[in-house]
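Researcher: Next entry in the queue.
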Amino acid sequence: MPEHTYETFVGVKGDAKQGGVYRYDYDAGANRLELVKQEVHLCGFTHIALSEDKKILAITGKTENGADILRSYRMPEKQEALQFISETKLNTAGDVCHLSISHDGKTVAVTDFADGAVHFYEMDKEGRIGAFIQRIEFEGSSISYRQDRSHPHSAFFSADDKRCFVADFGADRVWILNRIAGEKGFEISGSWSAPEGSGPRHIAFHKENGYNYIIMEMSAEIAVWKQQDRNDVEELQVLSIANPELPGNYGAVGESGLPGHYIAAGDIVITEDGKLAAASVRGHYEIVILKILQDGRLEIAARIPVRGAVRTIHFNEQGNLLFALGERMGHSTGIMEIFARQEHDSLLFKTVNQIEIPDAFVCSLKEIF
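Model: Structure for this entry, 369 residues:
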């Protein structure tokens, strides 16, 4: 196991005292995982994003009056405290479900599930949140649970920041936004249609083969496709990762529960070398490890049982550690679990450490060499 330290900043829902961002450090050499401190106090924590250079942390939450806000912090150089940079009030609808920072650090995308829109803001080189750029609303619907209208669940920037891909749970689409030439804003230029009733949720990009890997929340399927030109897409594969041996292990969420077909897939990530993907299925309490074949297709390699309903996954840079954060959902409380790749089987990950974090929601990961 690499002798590195990993800082994980975990968003926890709660009031102004308990809610906010907590820092947990994992010493891989000693296999020691511990809470360092509560870094930020924030009502109704919603989401978190770390800049590509690991220097800026953006978070969303609420004021004590219930208004949505976006904050930015400078990441510590030597395991010191987060440094507050800026805060701005958002004109979102109170259900922020995803946050992302462009690769060049100049744009922040705030996705609101209830608003049916993505809001874009400027960010300067120091991490200060700047002017509002635009709000892009989406229109569509589909056949199943929470699909009466568009409900975007995430927005991810392409590697060159010229495009933004929006996974629309409600419309069963991934919208393709192209940056307007010479401007800071985007425009809708096309879309990819997901299977009906599948609910697109998160997206992972392969650096070499150019394919997008989309996980569908309701059906626990992963689609592999790429944009051929401005308006055309090529679909390669749609693969189910649902566990046929666990047909009823969905858990109950909310007063009305969930429909039987709702398998509640969570997140998808790809290793730095592009050889493996990991995807979480909250309804089955599993992480599925997949091989990425030379032609871009996926092949299920292993299933890892987890204690949490995993909402966020991170690989370390070497791809031999897997960090999984589970939320309070169904039969589980919030929990962070760490898995290490086994030397005798490169496709098998085994749990090496875990810590319960009540009301944990999402997290970021920074590796300290």
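Model: The chain is about 0% helix and 55% strand.
Researcher: Noted, moving on.
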